[in-house]
Amino acid sequence: MKNHNSCGLCSIALKDLQVVSGQDTLIEGINLEFHCGQLTALIGKNGAGKTTLIKAILGERPFSGEISYTDHHGVKIAKPNIGYVPQQMDFDRSTPVTVMDFMAAALGKTPVWWKVGGREKKEIQKALEEMECGYLAERRLGALSGGELQRVLLALATMPIPDLLILDEPVSGVDMAGLDLFFRRVAYLRDRYHMAILLVSHDLSLIRRYADRVVLLDKTVIAQGDAEEVYGTAAFRSVFGYLEEEAES
Question: What does the domain layout of the chain look like in residue ranges?
């Protein structure tokens, strides 16, 4: 597969990141670095700070410490292009809006009640087809399955192609076939566009198959490395109650 190397970034570095809410420290002492062309998975129990960390990166949570973005020449980038796919999207499923109309409106190109122009249609259709869901373009948004909706949101998050793609438990409640297809499309984006991808997921087997790097959080980083390294640590056992090898035996 040809690598387009569209990413303008080289690395993202988090230094001494801390998020506090009232008297509670949600995350602290986060020191991480991840790179373009790399799928990094965040794992941990509920309340470990995974979503808090993502919201800090997205600018939705005040934090102390530093988040820096560096290009291939070692120059810091002030505003990288970040794509985001949430765990779920709340909307009225009875609304008679097609996928095409929704994406055009979300991109700010066309009000939802106006006809989508030819050029916009081609751009949206191409993004959908890259996520293997081009056939959904004229489908009513509310009629989509969970897996179909998440692939549509993934397509939307890649318009334009981001430097960093953040996925916050994007396939919660999706069946196994939909899970595998979603992860394959994410891996495709990483390989084709050399983008940095940060993923929160509870599916440890799919993380093992697709992630380049795994970070185990419990309000701070307690283990990191490739999946085999992290899944074999005492920290992993303390969080999940078993070693991954035991779960597969």
Answer: 1-81+164-178+195-249, 88-159
Please list the alpha-helical segments (H only) found in the chain. 50-57, 99-106, 118-130, 146-157, 176-193, 204-210, 227-231, 234-240, 244-248
C-alpha distances out from residue 6 to 36, 116, 148, 192, 196, Å? 10, 27, 26, 9, 11
Q: How do residues 29-78 score in pLDDT, each as one tens digit?
A: 999 998 999 999 999 999 999 999 999 999 999 999 999 999 877 888 88
Query: CA 45, CA 58: separation in Å to the nearest integer?
Result: 21
**What's the rounded Cα separation, in Å, for the pair 43 and 219?**
11
pLDDT at residue 18 is higher than 60:
yes
The CATH code of domain 1-81+164-178+195-249 reads 3.40.50.300
Residues 6+ apart with CB under 8 A from 220: 27, 28, 29, 30, 49
In degrees and rounded to multiples of 5, residue 221 shows phi and psi of -75, 120
Q: Report pTM.
A: 0.86
pLDDT at 114: 63
